[in-house]
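Q: What structure does this chain adopt?
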Amino acid sequence: MGPSTRPLISRKAIDQAVCRLGDQINTDFAREPLTLVIVLKGAVFFGADLARVLRMPLTMEFIRAQSYRGDQSSGQVIFRRLSDPIIADRNVLIVEDILDTGRTTAALFEDLRRQAPARLALCTLLDKPEGRKVASEADYTGFQIPNYFVIGYGLDYNERYRELPAIHIMEEFPPSADVNRHEGR
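A:
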């Protein structure tokens, strides 16, 4: 069991997508201050790369979302904040590694909306619509992928493979594992 020999999405393609997404966000927010809420651990690489191409005053906050135990989704999302961000009346962009079941995204939107941001949007590197259990849509999407379990560029399998520069399919994935458990890792 391990990463596919050839990447599903190359580092060059990721870099191009980050620049494209940055251009869209720069246009949409027109140099207005923006708070990035980066969902750990999976979106840390994507969030850092995205922040470097944005051209507006930024603040960065980090939140840890957990929706599984071991290799099974619990169906419940638990948030752990690294700090208590003040987002009332601010433009907020949630930065996710993958939009899969939609549970993490829906719970995070509900949690952040209570703080009354001026604008709340979602940017995800990967969108896996086949895995959707809860209606969720991203405002900005890097790539739409089929229902593969993917690793690399922040995405992991049991805390391994995050450091891979490209996105790979996890080969020989155990048949009993839930392939729709990416969110909140």
